[in-house]
Write a structure and sequence with these properties.
The strands form 6 sheets. This protein has a 6-stranded parallel beta sheet with strand order 2-1-3-4-5-6, sandwiched between helices. Strands 17-18-19-21-20 form a 5-stranded mixed beta barrel. Helix 10 packs parallel to helix 11, helix 11 packs parallel to helix 13 and helix 14 runs parallel beside helix 16. The model has no long low-confidence stretch (mean pLDDT 94). It is built from 16 helices and 21 strands. With 461 residues, it is of the alpha/beta class. It binds S-adenosyl-L-homocysteine (SAH), iron/sulfur cluster and FE3-S4 cluster. S-adenosyl-L-homocysteine binds next to strand 15.
């Protein structure tokens, strides 16, 4: 039995966090002990993201930090896994601290790769030569995924369940199709089996993951399974109390069906994350997004029609090539009309291989990107502040995540630590309560609101 320790760091999206959980489970099974810091670790794995240059730079600077540690501990094994590993391959392996480079398709091999490295002093590269052709559609991955038997450790009672891999959408700015390969849907049977297993282990909330989750489609015999079908099937699983899904692409296909499932099924959270990216039709076209701002707003109106208390959120990008003040104002206008609960706003960052990088000049100066980012955030903050006020004096049910990482000074105290929970519609709620509520539902009376956080008092459960 090995008594070696491993520390895994995640730098990416929910898919990336799920891969980290899988890798961590596999190493745990093989006898490695997880530890919280690099200092205590014999093996350090970094699960990486390539979606923006900044994400990659953070990894490179972390590798620089590991270089100092490795100077004193040459036996430290460093592995880079995930999207950046797939994108850079050999180039990353040449970095002096890196021992293993392992792409998203090779994570089932991770235990072997680490053990091999511990025995032999050789660097190893495990990525897919032609990811657009080979993709992530292999038996090994499916098997690896199906042994996934731990819930999200940071969030008790919650788990991610992948329903699709890859993406075929080729938004002109996006690297994902080039690092995760073509879109494939997992079988409904495998997904439901996994949800049942998670429910048996005490999971109450599952979040179904796909880059374009509303495109989920699995054909067997005469039947075509859509995301709506999955929602009905997952709702039947005893023990599961909440179901979310991300990320939705603004498209008509299956849209009403999914919203009707949301309206019909009490377990499906009334929450839709549907990135618009821009409010300018010219920019949307250049982004290869297949909708206009007006069509997008019609989809939101439809959502509000079918699910009246739906909470909406979105992603936006500012400073895409050719974005004029007028284009940006169109985005501002769309944000005002949409009335999102919250938005993620990013500054455009050119990604190698993508069409936008090859064909368009990154012509918006950094200061302009920054200015637009700040302005859009401020506008959204006002909207969020207005929407959050509606909760004042009301009692909400939250699924408790655990102790607050950044305790807020001005919340009511009752001798208990400050906890964080989320409503089904994804509002963050901070309150004081016993730590053992983590992973449980609690009722909280809201006494104060801010744009992104609600504060309240724990009520009788
Ligand atoms: N599949 C999801 C998530 C993609 S990545 C979707 O389609 O929405 C998450 C977000 O990162 C995107 O919504 C987009 O807003 C942002 N993003 C993607 N590529 C980017 C780039 N090159 N520069 C800046 N932001 C980017
Ligand atoms: Fe990227 Fe577009 Fe696919 Fe999302 S839908 S992962 S933004 S290519
Ligand atoms: Fe996720 Fe980043 Fe890869 S957003 S899919 S970890 S490029």
């Amino acid at each position: 039995m090995s008594t070696l320790t491993v520390h895994i760091k995640s730098f990416g999206c929910q898919m990336n966090k799920l891969d980290t959980a899988l890798v961590s489970a596999a190493l745990g099974k093989a006898g490695f002990t997880p530890v919280d810091s690099t200092q205590e670790a014999d093996v350090v794995l970094i699960n990486t993201c390539s979606v923006r240059e900044h994400a990659e730079q953070r990894v490179l600077s972390h590798l620089g930090h590991l270089k100092h540690i490795k100077e004193n501990r040459p036996d430290l094994v460093v592995g880079v896994i995930g999207c950046m590993a797939q994108r850079l391959g050999q180039e990353l392996l040449e970095h002096e601290v890196v021992d293993i480079v392992c792409g998203p398709a090779q994570i089932p091999q991770i235990v072997g790769l680490v053990q091999e490295r511990l025995q032999k002093n050789e660097k190893t590269l495990a990525v897919t030569e032609n990811i657009r052709k080979e993709g992530l559609d292999n038996k090994e991955l499916e098997e690896f995924e199906s042994v996934y038997d731990i819930a999200n450790k940071e969030m008790p009672g919650q788990a991610y369940v992948r329903v699709m891999r890859g993406c075929n959408n080729f938004c002109s700015y996006c690297v994902v199709p080039y690092v995760r390969g073509p879109e494939v849907s997992r079988t409904p049977a495998a997904i439901i089996k996994q949800i049942k297993k998670l429910a048996d282990e005490g999971v109450k909330l599952v979040t179904l993951l796909g880059q374009m989750v509303n495109a989920y489609k699995y054909i067997t015999g005469q039947k075509i399974y859509s995301l709506a079908d999955l929602l009905y099937m997952a709702s039947e699983v005893e023990g599961i109390e909440l179901i979310r899904f991300v990320t939705s692409y603004p498209a008509q296909k299956f849209y009403d069906e999914i919203l009707k499932a949301m309206a019909d099924l009490p377990k499906v959270c009334n929450y839709l994350h549907m990135p618009a990216q821009s409010g300018s039709d010219k920019i949307l076209q250049a982004m290869n997004r297949h909708y206009t701002a007006a069509e997008y707003l019609q989809l939101l109106a439809r959502a509000k029609d079918i699910v009246p208390d739906i909470a909406l959120s979105s992603d936006f990008m500012v400073g895409f090539p050719g974005e004029t003040e007028e284009d940006f104002e169109a985005t501002v206008d769309l944000v005002k009309k949409a009335q999102y609960k919250n938005c993620f706003i990013f500054k455009y960052s050119p990604r190698p291989d993508t069409v936008a990088d090859k064909k368009l000049q990154d012509d918006i100066p950094q200061e302009v990107k920054k200015k637009r980012n700040i302005k859009l955030l401020a506008i959204q903050e006002k909207i969020s502040a207005e929407l959050s006020k509606q909760f004042l004096g009301k009692t909400v049910t939250v699924l408790v995540e655990g102790p607050s990482k950044k305790p807020h000074l001005d919340s009511a105290k009752n001798g208990y630590p400050q906890l964080v929970g989320r409503t089904a519609t994804n509002w963050i709620v901070v309150f004081n309560g016993p730590e053992n509520l983590a992973g449980q539902f609690a009722k909280v009376k809201i006494t104060k609101s801010s744009p992104l956080t609600l504060f309240g008092k724990l009520g009788p459960v």
